[in-house]
Design brief:
Structural class: alpha/beta
Shape: globular
Order of helices and strands: EEEHHEHEHEHHEHEHEHHH
Mean pLDDT: 95
Largest sheet: 7 strands, parallel
Low-confidence stretches: none
């Protein structure tokens, strides 16, 4: 596993991190503690040193299980969590006290004194434009409750707004073979400013594994079953915003471009 620094003056982490949304069990079959620890151990054994979670994944369940895992491993893992999408906050109840309460609750669940990276969690554009939330994050950093802060965004516009903020350590963005718009402006600006990039949906909700077909069936509680075209939440999340059938057709073309010594997953991640 190769390592990289997450942003200028940031910390070193593995190139591939582990997204821990599924551990919360919100949008699919619940994963029990035994299976969770099996996943986390497998990641660590393969050199992963970065876990990404959020306060709302399973209403704190993902953080709690990660916290328990950290107490039972000698591995040095950097933890990123998020704030901003809980039902009592989103879309219009962003206050400094709400942020403080969320950070303290995350620290408790994760069993850590200081959060390595706290990310704003796809919060409304208007709140990003207002900007005061970044001052609150800077205060928490000074107090030693977080080491760095960043933002998970849904659009290039939101990402560019965040890049205007002093002290932003990272941006988490949707980026994969199907979603390349970021290469034109956002990624060059992030590079110039020394802001790290965390890629989410690199496999487009599993589409880029190459394992799906027209006969693929998802369970009733799987978000890929009811959000194929973005009906339930942001249209760019599931399958990178592509209709499932169109994604399959494009996948057939991509398979023809895949080198013989690579799987579709390896090509997609590269």
């Amino acid at each position: 596993m190769k390592k990289r620094n997450l942003g200028k003056n940031g910390f070193e982490i593995s190139e591939v991190g582990l997204g821990c949304w599924q551990i919360g069990g919100d949008w699919g079959n619940e994963i029990n503690k035994e299976k969770t620890f099996e996943i986390l151990n497998e990641a660590v054994n393969n050199g992963v040193t970065f876990f990404d979670t959020a306060d709302v994944y399973g209403n704190g369940r993902s953080e709690e299980l990660i916290g328990e895992f950290l107490n039972n491993t000698h591995a040095k893992i950097k933890i990123a969590t998020k704030f901003g999408r809980s039902s009592n906050i989103f879309p219009d109840n962003y206050t400094e006290q709400a942020l403080r309460n969320s950070v303290d609750a995350s620290r408790k669940r994760l069993n850590i004194d200081c959060i390595d990276l706290l990310q704003l969690h796809c919060i409304p554009t208007e709140v990003l434009k207002k900007g005061e939330i970044f001052n609150w994050l800077r205060t928490l950093k000074k107090e030693g409750k977080i080491t760095h802060f960043g933002a998970s965004v849904e659009s290039v516009t939101q990402g560019l707004l965040c890049l205007e903020q002093e002290g932003l350590q990272s941006l988490q963005v949707i980026y994969n073979i199907f979603r390349q718009k970021l290469t034109q402006e956002l990624l060059p600006q992030a590079y110039t400013k020394g802001v790290g990039i965390i890629v989410r949906l690199p496999l487009a909700s599993g589409l880029l594994t190459g394992k799906f077909s027209e006969k693929t069936q998802f369970s009733k509680n799987d978000h890929r079953n009811f959000n194929r075209d973005g009906e339930a939440f942001n249209v760019g999340e599931t399958f990178a915003g592509l209709p499932f059938d169109k994604g399959l057709k494009l996948l057939d073309e991509l398979k023809m471009l895949c080198p013989q010594n690579m799987t579709m997953v390896e090509m997609a991640l590269r």
